[in-house]
Amino acid sequence: MTTISLVAGGPKENLADLSKYHSDEMIWVGIDRGSRYLLDLNIPLHYAFGDFDSISYKEHESLKTKIPNLNTLPSEKDKTDTEIALDWAISQKPDQIYIFGATGGRLDHLLGNIHLLIKSTSTLSKIDIIDQQNQITLYTSGTYKVKRKIEWDYISFIAITSDIHGLTLDGFKYPLKNCHIRLGSTLCISNELIGDVGTFSFQEGILLMIRSRD
């Protein structure tokens, strides 16, 4: 399985433990200050994107000697550094894309990054945003299995389109049957699996599944 991991420059205290995801086959991509995070962790950095306005000139010059594929972007542009890096990652057609360092800090960047997950509807690549407490994945209509994971206690479902039709949750502490969820509803916050595997399905709309821990 081909996996590309993007590391953006969100607050370091929110960053997941990247060593848990590292493998020799992983392609690591730094986004602006995220490049510095990877180098500090001695994780091989294959590509970097950004205008690098969040690091010093000296640090930027140092990156040029350490990163084989450094893409310096203009500060004035129509996409964020993260979106440009994600578009590149999607163009490589990997099986999985992880986005780290994309939460915390400025709310405009957080909401923008979450909405970038909509790009997963037009690619075969699975895209997840992961931080120290959460894993966020976007789903279109269909039926899906969810396996219990020790590191994630809670599972929430949040509408990202105006309506979710026919949401059914089986194997959850709070089950649902053919339920209509509107944008802005908190009905499906903080659910839990009651066994090793649960299923969820819905007939129309787009929703986020967020796995979290305290």
Describe what you observe in this structure:
There is one protein chain. Strands 1, 2, 3, 4, 5, 6, 7, 8, 9, 10 and 11 form an eleven-stranded mixed β-sheet that branches. This protein starts with a strand and ends with a strand. The protein has helices spanning 33-40, 57-66, 81-91, 107-115, and strands spanning 3-7, 27-31, 47-50, 69-72, 96-100, 126-130, 134-147, 154-159, 163-170, 176-182, 197-212. It folds into two domains: 3-132, 3-Layer(aba) Sandwich (Rossmann fold); 137-212, 3-Layer(aba) Sandwich (Rossmann fold). The protein is built from four helices and eleven strands. Strand 6 (126-130) and strand 7 (134-147) form a beta hairpin. With 214 residues, the protein is of the alpha/beta class.
What's the β-strand tally?
Answer: 11
Structural class: alpha/beta
Q: CATH superfamily name of the largest domain?
A: Thiamin pyrophosphokinase, catalytic domain
Q: State the CATH class of the largest domain.
A: Alpha Beta
Rounded mean pLDDT is 93
What general outline do the C-alpha atoms trace? elongated
Order of helices and strands: EEHEHEHEHEEEEEE
Cα-to-Cα separation, first versus last residue: 30 Å
Low-confidence stretches: none
> Percent of residues in beta strands?
35-45%
Number of domains: 2
Level-2 CATH architecture of the largest domain: 3-Layer(aba) Sandwich
Helix content bin:
10-25%
Per DSSP, the total helix count is 4
Rg computed from alpha carbons, rounded to a whole number of angstroms = 18 Å
The quaternary organization reads as single chain
Q: How does the major sheet shape up? A: 11 strands, mixed
What CATH calls the topology of the largest domain is Rossmann fold
